[in-house]
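ESCALATION

Customer reports they have been waiting on this structure for their group meeting. Please prioritize. Original submission:
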Amino acid sequence: QVQLVESGGGSVQAGGSLRLSCAASGYQYSSYCMGWFRQAPGREREGVAHIDVYHGTIYGDSVKGRFFISRDNAKNALYLLMISLKPEDTGMYYCAASITGMCGSRPESYTYWGQGTQVTVSS
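Update from on-call: job pushed to the front of the queue and completed.
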């Protein structure tokens, strides 16, 4: 049974930092692309960053230079370091696993999802 469990969300002031974690289990973690997505109330889910099996990374334009995705295959863990946070970064953050061989920013490419962790950035 595949499980993805996010942690590390919280409330911070603008300019602050947070580090999100995602613990994965139930599948061959190192073999598949992983991604972070976020969704604000009333908005569509958007891709924040993803990392492929070779540790290649792609970021959404709005987070480039501020967010950093990484993975630790020995620990079946995914991370998202977020610095210089802005109020527009507020939302529910989800980690997701793609076992289809696809890797990108489209939610449809991902098969499994965590329950999310809330990030709130105040001005």
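Sent to customer with the following note: The chain is about 0% helix and 50% strand.
Escalation resolved.
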